[in-house]
Amino acid sequence: MKLYGKGLLMTFTEVSSELDADFNEWYNREHLMERINIAGFRRARRYEAVEAEIKYLSTYEALDSDNIASPDYAKVLKTPSEWSKSIMPQFTKWHRMPCRVEADYTCGMGAALALFRFYLDPTKKQKLLEWINKGALHELNELPGIVGSCLVSVDVEADKRLANALGQTVDPNQKTEWAILVEGSNSNVTTKTSSEYLSEKLKSLILSKTEIIIEKYKFLYGDQRIS
Length: 227
Prior knowledge:
Layout: E1 7-14, H1 20-36, E2 41-51, E3 56-62, H2 65-68, H3 71-78, H4 82-87, E4 93-105, E5 112-119, H5 125-141, E6 146-154, H6 156-165, E7 177-184, H7 187-203, E8 213-224
Antiparallel strand pairs: 1-3, 1-4, 2-3, 2-8, 4-6, 5-7, 5-8, 6-7
């Protein structure tokens, strides 16, 4: 099964250890359900870091990246529940990536996720897409322990609309962040195998003076709309 559309929102979140249990109850029992019932949203998944800067990652699959920054989504952001009001101000770390799905070779749901984040040299975008579309992710998926992968890029305009809805400032010089998500059956094998396959090629495509961020996660929980 592929992703449920051409939009993918990733959010990275962390709270203090004292709040961790309540945070997970809120996320699993209310927050994911609330989000997947927004128009255009279809499926959400949660991951816990094995090795990453921020402890929790959530992915939300939408029909299009415009759904991620739609008036319906902005309305939910502006009218949080009482439970959300008690949890969200206590985030100690938070980052958002509203993305377009550039290539989807996802297949089912893996127990592990390796996330490769990078800033692509804009002059090499076509080289990246040609490499991907000529079979790179398909070949990656054939390697032992890998079950699926996809390429996404941040929709900068959607990110600006979300920032405006939340009253946040926007960096006028914001660079477009890209990511490859690789799913597998074991976090160590998934990360090692995909790193060996992807890293050297990606290093030749990223902006100078930037690095590839590789993060390792395990699957926690997911939910999806029935209709």
